[in-house]
Amino acid sequence: MSCFKSKFADELIANAAYIGTPGKGILAADESTGTIGKRFASINVENVESNRRALRELLFTTPGALQYISGIILFEETLYQKTASGKPFVDVMKEAGVLPGIKVDKGTVELAGTNGETTTIGLDGLGDRCKKYYEAGARFAKWRAVLKIGDNEPSELAIHENAYGLARYAVICQENGLVPIVEPEILVDGSHDIEQCAYVTERVLAVCYKALSDHHVILEGTLLKPNMVTPGSDSGSKVKPEVIAEHTVRALQRTVPAAVPAVVFLSGGQSEEEATVNLNAINQLKGKKPWSLTFSYGRALQQSTLKAWGGKEENFEKAQKAFLARAKANSEATLGGYKGDAQLGEGASESLHVKDYKY
Amino acid sequence: MSCFTTKFADELIANAAYIGTPGKGILAADESTGTIGKRLASINVENVESNRRALRELLFTTPGALPCLSGVILFEETLYQKSSNGTPFVDMLKSAGVLPGIKVDKGTVELAGTNGETTTQGLDGLGDRCKKYYEAGARFAKWRAVLKIGENEPSELAIHENAYGLARYAVICQENGLVPIVEPEILVDGSHDIHKCAAVTERVLAACYKALSDHHVLLEGTLLKPNMVTPGSESAKVAPEVIAEHTVRALQRTVPAAVPAIVFLSGGQSEEEATRNLNAMNQLKTKKPWSLSFSFGRALQQSTLKTWGGKEENVKKAQEAFLVRCKANSEATLGAYKGDAKLGEGAAESLHVKDYKY
């Protein structure tokens, strides 16, 4: 059936289109308390609220960075935090033309009878939470579904459960004024080749769009956050950005309706530089691309920034420079104009792959 | 899943893209013997092989018409017929740069337990038939699935059966070198409004593309032949721009960019309506990652038939009428139709027949 009539329809459509503005993309800063703890541990910083606040302030107040960002995904705690001088983060963002977003899923649980496959939870009371987040200033949401490639994976069950969970989440968001980012991440873990990844990605995305159709989701008011199509992390083969671009765009051409305004890639385990170079190749590719192709990067935007900061006040400015460099590089990549000349911060070429990554 | 690898992949992709060449479209001349009988009866012409041959020859030899066409869908009998000077029709078409196509379905049968809903048959031995048709020169195929709008229609069952039948047909075609035209026609019959038609069209197309994905069909080597999104036949008419907007939006929401071209069916629209609506779609400013063209039967032949009346002495006049519609629709694919086609007799006449059976 066609989409339902949401009183928020015009706003959803406008916000989704805005997020896909050429030259802009999303900063995924929605690490849960547990996950940010792991990041902090890697730079010997204590996982306390003040440090979590300080990191996000560092990012959001970097001079010149927000012009490259159309939206920032936040964890619930951050939605209500303020700068050291008392200004709510959501206000900082709004003044800079950045839409605040909110992670609304509650993580994954295993599906009984499968080989470690999962589904994502968080539907209970989701409508009420979305309403609350909208009141707090959020205008888009994110829900991460996870699939893996293996001998018998992803199974029909895992694909179906994750796709229909995403669709239900999406329509609940739209009922409450939040643009849903639909994220069906197929983990890069494994020894499969790029063709196998393409095969699985196309299959998964086809199911997702069927589920969204069944649930009457307004596609013009959604965003897609997929994995790029790449060889598995253990495949032993690296391929060129142009090959990743070709397989990725073809998979999207075969599955993502033109009504979707923008595709915002996740970076998975790619290094900062890889994620930028691949996005650039995607935007340089000649072919039908009726959606913007941009970024929604977490690790791939923050890695060298984190290392430069190390939790120390005196490194603030240096860390902000590192962040600006990545934000600008990715902005250029959305225009196919990245020349590979971003000053590589420490760790920018470092793979960020963690096997079977749990957020 | 992703598509399977067929040895015909490159050819399928090239042929499908060619059919969508701007300025060109498809003539659907695949009326079965029974159906063409009804047409001939309406102009008092006997339904015998020589008359069927003569009509098709009239169309295919119209000076200046074939450049407006990228493909012609044929009924099996016609695939093996020749012009009066002995040239096989398929050769005539090929030398004019027109791909021969072939209707491969075997009509509809009712689905038990539904309110007159149908499924399409023809899968048995389809692979062998496709091989044969390819050898005879065919390069694309057509299979018509039919759905209707009603209180409880189309049902989940009808949508599923028709979508999965189309998908199975499509992959068998591709295995044998024929580009499948995927045709999920939602009949215009009914008193529903345009919004209802849009909702149903979107639901049906979403099911179709899910089925095609499940069956590993190579989308770049397919064509879609949908209905335009319009009010029901018993409901008030709307402007071409409104039809264009609803139609293109429905396609944006369901048809992947990998599909090279969409070739609309004309349903019960008059010749002039069909052309104007197609023109409005091509003028619309919005995302359209596929060509938007025509695959018209009645809407290309109506005035030609009336003018011919089965008489040798009318052939030239009838050919002129046919050329007028070909050119008008060619212009419409470019959004350039000025509405100035010399209206032949019957061009503005609605071609709607309730619950039309081909």
In short:
Two copies of one chain form a homodimer. The first copy, chain A, has 359 residues and is an alpha/beta fold.
What does it look like?
The structure is a homodimer. Chain A has 359 residues and is of the alpha/beta class. In chain A, 42% of the residues lie in helices and 14% in strands. Chain A has twelve helices and ten strands. In chain A, the strands form two sheets. Chain A has an eight-stranded parallel sheet with strand order 8-7-6-3-2-1-10-9. In chain A, α8 (194-214) packs parallel to α9, α10 (272-284) runs antiparallel to α11 (299-309) and α10 packs parallel to α12 (316-334). Chain A is globular and about 50 Å long. The two termini of chain A are 34 Å apart. The relative contact order of chain A is 0.15. The model of chain A has no long low-confidence stretch (mean pLDDT 95). Chain A binds chain B through residues 1-2, 195, 198-199, 202-203, 206-207, 209-210, 213-214, 219, 250-259, 288-290, and chain B through 1-3, 195, 198-200, 202-203, 206-207, 209-210, 213-214, 219, 249-258, 287-289.
Structural features:
homodimer; alpha/beta; 42% helix; 8-stranded parallel beta sheet; globular; 12 helices; two-stranded antiparallel ribbon; 359 residues
